[in-house]
Amino acid sequence: MKYSGIGGQAVLEGIMMMNRNAFAVAARRSDGGIEVRKDTYHSMTEKSKLLRLPFIRGVFRFADSMIVGTKALNFSAEVYGMEEEEEEPSRFEKFLDRVFGEKLEKVIMAAVMVFSFAAAIGIFMVLPLLLAGVFRKLTESETLIAFLEGLIRVLIFVTYIKLVSRMEDIRRTFMYHGGEHKCINCIEHGLPLTVENVRSSSKEHKRCGTSFLLIVMMISILVFMVVRVDGIAARIISRIVLVPVIAGISYEVLQAAGRSSSKLSDIIAKPGLCMQALTTTEPDDSMIEVAIAATEAVFDWKAYLRENFPDTVIPETISRPEVRVTDAADGPWKIEADEKKAG
């Protein structure tokens, strides 16, 4: 395996792929075609050398991923809802439009991100602390309590994934997630980007966000074993304040393991790869086609193979489905009402 620099995310009936500052979202239209939207995003870490320092950059890269991910989800939701009839905006929607105007989308995006972050902190950091506190009646060992807190955190995460995976849209999203991983693995193992090669590639990948979350949980156990404070209020504050520290350490661990093929990196990555069994499912060929469309919009895989795998035979022609590509640089993406009705 050779590092390609590509990352991605599954969205509604589609996939987002990112390569450096360029990203593309590909989603399946109801008429069977594939809609691709290309855009660029410059990381917060480019604004200052300080933000690019190890253990600091991870926090801002995580924020970057949330911003790009939200944009990708918004686009896929537009494509996913093409066939739906337009509804008259509610009074509340009209009020928001009057107040915020063209900034409404950014305001909503910011609100969603803040709410999501607060909910994640509450569910995965504060709640395990409170539940682990019950065991203080049985033991005085802070080390054991910190370990139990981490174990409860993992159990909550697994339970959450199990519950949401029962939803049809989430099940299909997990299939697209598997397609994203397969596409990247196909390239990084020196195979031409064809449906057949992607299908035979692994659906687990070391640099997955699921692995990142598991590493966060494992690092948090070690951190909270060392950082000890008295009083429930102080403990809650410590869990919130130390989130950036834990995220920064976890990012470095994930990057080191994801870029290496050593036995140590394999050992570090193994728990995350096992956890991906919950968040990735084998995709069908139509989903693989979407993953390929997103990848080809931002990454020249043929040039990559020629440079890193010179012995690979690249097919002269490869059959591809209909793909319609738009670029954010050409103006806002829009589909007219008659196109929506036509699906």
Automatic annotation (TrEMBL):
Keyword Transmembrane helix carried by entry: yes
Keywords from the UniProt entry: Membrane, Transmembrane, Transmembrane helix
Name of the protein in question: Uncharacterized conserved protein YqhQ
InterPro entries reported in the protein's UniProt record: DUF1385
Keyword field contains Nucleus: no
Domain of life the protein comes from: Bacteria
Transmembrane segment boundaries: 107-132, 144-165, 208-226, 232-254
